[in-house]
Amino acid sequence: ERLPDVHQRVSVEALAAVQALVEGHAEAPALQPRLGPLLVALFHRLGDKRQPVRERSNTLLNTVRLEFAPVAVVAALSPRVLDLPERTKTAVLQFLCVTAPHCGQYFEEGKNTWAFLGRMACVLGALGTKPSAALHAAGSRLLELVYNTAPTVVPMQLSLLPLGQQQLLKRLLEASVPD
């Protein structure tokens, strides 16, 4: 709640409090449902004009990546990607590139992979908005990593998407997805 405060001292202190909470209680059941909103808030803070806030947010994102199970991070962040500004989406996809390869268990479930692929298609242009080069590169890399994590599930779930989404994602994965 205090992370976006206009006063640098308040934001930095809030980030320090969250850091202590994450380091000491990452496995606490009460913290799990708050992980998604926390991650989104931290990614927004990466764009803060104040360097100490950006640095503290980056450090905290790395702590979250290390303290929480990768599946929890992907499950918390993936559903929120469509609601983010493009620059933030790029940072989120780059972050997920580090986490997704450790989420075979998550992506082996068809419903998770289907939802993820649908979101990625929307992020990467299925809705008619052309992504920036950076977002396109991060999204393509993330798709490849998820395919490598669940190579039998991705093609099956890809075939269940609307045709336009299928075609877009297949073009991006053409080197990885057999015909």
Structure overview:
This protein is mainly α. Helix content is 69%, strand content 0%. It has 10 helices and no strands. Helix 5 packs parallel to helix 8.
Task: Give a summary of the structure in a few sentences.
With 179 residues, the chain is an all-alpha fold. The protein has 10 helices and no strands.
Helix content: 55-70%
Total E-strand runs? 0
Computed structural class: mainly alpha
Give the uncertain stretches in residue-range form. Answer: none
Head-to-tail CA distance between termini: 48 Å
Number of helices: 10
Principal-axes geometry comes out as globular
What's the overall average pLDDT, rounded? 90
Strand fraction: under 5%
Radius of gyration: 17 Å
String of helices and strands: HHHHHHHHHH
Main sheet makeup: none
Name some characteristics of this structure.
179 residues; 69% helix; globular
Topology, please?
Elements (H helix, E strand, L loop, with lengths): L7 H18 L9 H11 L5 H17 L2 H8 L8 H14 L4 H4 L2 H17 L6 H17 L3 H6 L4 H11 L6
Helix pairs in contact: 1-3, 2-3, 2-4, 5-8, 7-8, 7-10
